[in-house]
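Most newcomers find our protein records easier to grasp once they have seen one. A learned vocabulary of local backbone shapes supplies the integers on the structure line. Here is such a record, shown just as it appears in the course material:
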Amino acid sequence: MTTTGEEHTEAGTGPWWWVGWRSAVLDAGLALVSAFECGGEGVRFAHDAGLPAPVGVVFGAVSGSVLLVRRKWPIAVVLVSIAITPAQMGFLMGLVGLYTLAASELPRRITAALAGMSFVGMLIVTFVRAHQSVVRGDVPMGSWLVPFASLTTAIGMTAPPVLLGLYMGARRRLMESLRERADSLERELQLLAERAEERAEWARNEERTRIAREMHDVVAHRVSLMVVHAAALQAVARKDPEKAVKNAALVGDMGRQALTELREMLGVLRTGDGLGARVPSVPLAAVGAAAAAAAAAASRVVDDSGGGEGPSLAEIDELVGQSAAAGMVVALSVEGDMRGYAREIEQTAYRVVQEALTNVHKHAAGAKTYVRLAHRVSEIAMQVENECPPEVGAGSSVGLPSGGNGLLGMKERVAALGGVFVSGPTDAGGFRVSAVIPA
């Protein structure tokens, strides 16, 4: 089936070969007008051919009604119009047929051939009829006007419908191309919006993971030391009141420090733009902005959640001292010259040592622990290793719970900076945590 510039590209809803009822009604109306025209012209044709008038009317009506199938068989319509041209019938059918043929998807050589045949047929018939009229004296004109009138009539009956059909066909193809491009662009925008939503969701999940890890690092160490001191306080409350007072003061200091760090972190969460926001179904620009805001907010939380400038390597001595005050036998050794590192590197190194000491308090209470820190040319290395605890189950005597996320959090922190993290038991029954971070 051929298509014309008058047809739409959407799914057909009309009868038979028409794409819509409007097209069917239009073609039926054109066919009816063409049938009346050819039927009226058939009276003269029958008179000239010596046939009964009804025969000419029926022949003309049947020929004109062929216009009904112009969308499905435009070549047939043009051929019928050329065939009845000598009978001076089907002028409307010839015009509409040539327009439909030129606007269809048929090869242009077929259109040119049929348009040429129609032009030649119209030229010959018009020339013969005009010459006869001049000879009979029906039309007072010079003989030189016959070729001119024949040529202009043939051109007027073929060129306008062909040119208009070519224009409408090119316009329809252009509109279809633009519509396809618009549909493709809409699908791409929808895909990009979906990907932006996925990125925003990933940013939110990453944000939650990092906040949970930061909360764990901030709270676990302080609370673990508080539990250890509370257990010691309970043990010496009656035997050594002075030591009990000292332990109570340490518990209070650590609690205040934990509350301060929590307050600073919660302040960051309250002021962070876009944290945990749902991404609505909005245009792509808004979705992309939401994703970028969520990612930026997550990055701010990671950078700022430690409060102020965050912990640094200069506070390692204090960190080790707090564990020693809680009863741990811990030794700190530093290799190389201390120098300044990027903020996230110092925070990560501090958190690794902090979490490793917290794990010793939880799982190996009473075990001697070694903290080693090495400043190298292009990296910083840290290692926390504890010996086998003197008594199995000592870590559980103070009732320290374990969330099971400490080692995972350390590994994620170090890997995010391109470092290497290794942890595992030692041959002597202890446990070792090692990390190397590029400087």
Q: What stands out?
A: Confidence is low (pLDDT under 50) at residues 5-11, 273-308, 392-398. The radius of gyration is 47 Å. Residues 21-143 form one domain.
